[in-house]
Each structure stands twice: as C-alpha cells, then as structure tokens.
Automatic annotation (TrEMBL):
Belongs to the DNA polymerase type-Y family. GO terms for cellular component: cytosol. It comes from the Bacteria. This is DNA polymerase V.
Length: 422
DNA sequence: TCTGGGGTCCTAGGACCC
DNA sequence: TCTGGGGTCCTAGGACCC
C-alpha cells in the first residue's frame, strides 16, 4: 500500500465546544439547536441515549428535555468557528498536508508513515488535541479516505479502540466492512442505501464486492469511486487548497412570521450584505443572482407560497448597493401580499475571479468608486463588528431576527465575553 | 405556536448547430 | 412513400455531504 489517510473528527463538536467552557456540563445530557432554535443538530452521548434524534424539531422533544433536564443551547457559530480553527492549527503539527473537510473534520495525509507505529501516532493526535484544547476527537487511519471514514466511525463504537483505530491489515479491513452497513459508507445516502438493499447489498463488504459496471450503472461514477475506495484503491484525493466557491448562498428563517414586503426586504438586504461580504472575501464577482422568499413548508394548504427570480448582470459585480437594488426589485416581483413569510435569501451565481471581469461599454456603474466604498465597509465591519455600518434598507426594528433563546457567550472572540476566574 | 443552512457533482433531456 | 447523425451547451432535478 502506498497511501495513508487519517480522518480526525471532533466528538459531538458543538456540544464539546460548549463543554470546554462549562465543564459542569460533563456527564449531563446536552443538545445544541439549529438556527432559530428549530431542530436538534448536536447531542452529547447522554442526550443520544435519551433517544433525542438528529434533526428532530425542538418542539417535538420539549417534554423529554424538561423531564431529563437536558441542557439546551442555541447555535453559537462564532464560538464553533473559532474552536474549529484552533483544532486545525493543532492538527497541522501532525502532517504538512491537511484538508479541512468540514467545521469538525479534517483529513491528514500520512503519506509514507507506514514504518511508524500508526496506532501510537493516532493516539498521540487524539491526546494532543484533548490536552491543548480540551476537545475530544476520534482518529481513523486507512489507505483511502472512504476507509479512513469507516475506521473513524468504528473507533467510537469499539471500547478497545478508544477513539483511535488503524485499518491497514487486509483481514481487519474485511472485518470492519462486514460490520458496517452500506448506508453508513461515506457517499451512500438514504436513497442509494434503499436501492442497494433491493439488490441484496446490505453491508459495506457487499458493496466492496459489486462489479464496476453495477456500481457505474446504479450509483454513477461517483459511486464507482466509492466502491473502489472500499477495495483500498485511492480515488479521492486530498484537497489541500481552500476551494473557491462556485455559488454562495445566504438565507435565514425569520424568528416570527412576516407579512409586510418592507420587512421581508429588510431581512433580504441584510442577507445580501452578508453574501456579498463572503463573495469579496474569496475575491470573486457574481454574474447572476437568485432571490427567493417563502412561507413555511408546513403551512395549511392554500397558505403555502414559494417563489424565486433570477437576475443576470451585464457586468459581474460585488457591489452591495447594486446587488441590493437588484435584489429588492426581484423581491417586489415575487412577493404576494397575504402570505405569512418565514424565510428569504439569495444565491450568487456565475462567479468569476474579480481580476478577470470584462468591462462593458454599456456599464453605468462607477466601479472604482463602488470598489473603494466596499473596501471601506469591509474594514469597518472587520474592526467594529458586522452591524456597525448598515444600509437604511436594512431597517432598525429587525422583527425578523433569529430566535436564539439559549445562546452561550462568545468566549474566544469577544473581549466582553471572556470567561472570568475568581 | 414551534420544523436549519450551505454546499458539490452528475445525468438526462431539450435546444441548437452543421 | 422515404424524414440523418453527431456534436455541444444549458438547465432542472436528483443524489450526496456536513
């Protein structure tokens, strides 16, 4: 074997972030809710044991939460994002080649470390992150990313592995695949799992043994790669560079239903600002924008409405005044009075590098002036916070604001939220 | 009453061209 | 009467991920 990957993922990441700063939560059931305190999106092991499910609506589990005194938190992405960056920094000690796969997972290229004691190395990674940051992680090591995912998963289930499992031995891999359901393989979702069931493919081992043509036919080329990875053939490379996004989306549900066009527009304007900020951060400009607004999907029949409108720009842009103007115009076109809106947002599409924008002779915008304005705003917001400078169109009442009833302090990024010791 | 948000990739099929 | 064949581009929809 020539390749070797480690997948390091943080256990119950959002819950663990809360616990780092409030050790009293150790050993107790804890959950973190999605934006707007809508669904359960992270659970401590104790909360899992109570039967709280991932993605379950919070109101459905109110009783359970009260009865067992489950500690509840609103999402605190400022805290989680910062903790995530610290974990990545710590992990980069262990390999020069690292892919940040998600907020709580990284792949490490262990390239030619076959000669080292991998088990000891995996344990050392785990111990270091725990010691430096108080963050519990699990480590899976294997010759492909897909197998590393499986190793990681099993490391949490096996008492013997204690959160660090190496899968390089052929017989160990076979055993691991036989103990893993096909639907738990990375890249096999609910739909494919059900389809595979119909063909008698139940375990990861069954999936490993299907023919290439079967995989290609029923799971597309993506699934074929997965099957090959299960056999130990690396097909999915490490992505070292932060990928430039091809689309950028910003949307939020409202804390309460909104009926007024003006107010929906205020929320949308705020989303445009956030989205355009992300756009400029990766030095892109957008050639098009889709604006949408909708009621709750769960509203009664006749009260459900959802629509979108796409606008194409003559010249790709990153200018907020321009984007806001187009967004509000599109919103006016799709807004229908009489509905109780729950959500609005936008996608920026057809992104191109800012450096390669072709100027149009029909252009009526003073791009240089807008550019200087955007730079100034970015600097101000960076320094004084995101809402330090606002457009009049964003309004001041913010009745649409998220519900966040149980937000913890931003311990690591706000001076006023620093933890106090006596 | 209350149900998250942000992405990627692939394929099939239609439009269009010569 | 007999109504081609091959290629590209675009989009909507479906699948997946965290």
């Amino acid at each position: 074997m020539t390749s070797l990957f480690a997948l390091v993922d943080c256990n119950n990441f959002f819950v663990s972030c809360e616990r780092v700063f409030d050790p009293g939560l150790e050993g107790r059931p804890v959950v973190v809710l999605s934006n707007n305190d809508g669904c359960v999106i992270a659970r401590s092991n104790e909360a899992k044991a109570l039967g709280l499910k991932m993605g379950q609506p919070a109101f459905e589990v109110q009783d359970l939460i009260q009865r067992h005194q489950v500690q509840v938190f609103s999402s605190n992405y400022e805290l989680y994002g910062d903790m995530s960056a610290r974990v990545v920094e710590t992990l980069s000690q262990f390999s020069p080649n690292l892919e940040v796969y998600s907020i709580d997972e990284s792949f490490l290229d262990l390239g030619n470390l076959y000669k080292t004691d991998l088990q000891a190395y995996a344990k050392e990674i785990k111990a270091t992150v725990k010691q430096w940051l108080g963050m519990p992680v699990a480590v899976g090591v294997a010759p492909t990313k897909t197998l590393a995912k499986i190793a990681n998963r099993l490391s949490k289930k096996s008492a013997k592995a204690e959160g660090a499992l190496v899968l390089t031995d052929k017989r160990h891999i076979e055993e691991a695949l036989k103990r893993t359901e096909a639907g738990d393989v990375w890249g096999i979702g609910r739909r494919y799992a059900r389809k595979l069931q119909g063909f008698g493919v139940h375990t990861a081992w069954d999936l490993r043994n299907v023919s290439d043509s079967f995989a290609r036919k029923h799971l597309t080329v993506v699934g074929l790669r997965t099957v090959r990875e299960l056999r130990g053939e690396p097909c999915i490379d490490l992505e070292l560079m932060l990928q430039v996004k091809k689309n950028i989306c910003t949307s939020r549900s409202f804390g309460q239903a909104i009926t007024d066009l003006e107010e929906v527009g205020e929320a949308l304007t705020t989303h445009v600002v956030r989205c355009a900020t992300k756009l400029r951060k990766q030095k892109s400009r957008a050639g098009a924008m889709t604006v949408f607004c909708m009621t709750s999907r769960f509203a009664a029949e006749g009260e459900v409405y959802s629509n979108c409108r796409t606008v194409y720009f003559d010249t790709p842009t990153d200018s907020e005044p321009e984007l806001i103007r187009h967004a509000l115009k599109a919103l006016r076109e799709i807004y229908r009075p009489g509905f109780r809106y729950r959500k609005t947002g936008l996608l920026l599409l057809d992104l191109v590098p800012a450096s390669s924008v072709q100027l149009s002779i029909l252009d009526t915008v003073d791009r240089e002036k807008h550019g200087r304005l955007m730079e100034t705003l970015d600097n101000l917001r960076e320094r004084f916070g995101h809402s330090s400078v606002k457009y009049a169109a964003q309004g001041t009442e913010e009745r649409w604001k998220l519900r966040q009833e149980s937000l913890s302090p931003r311990y690591t990024t706000r001076l006023e939220d620093l933890i106090r010791a006596r």
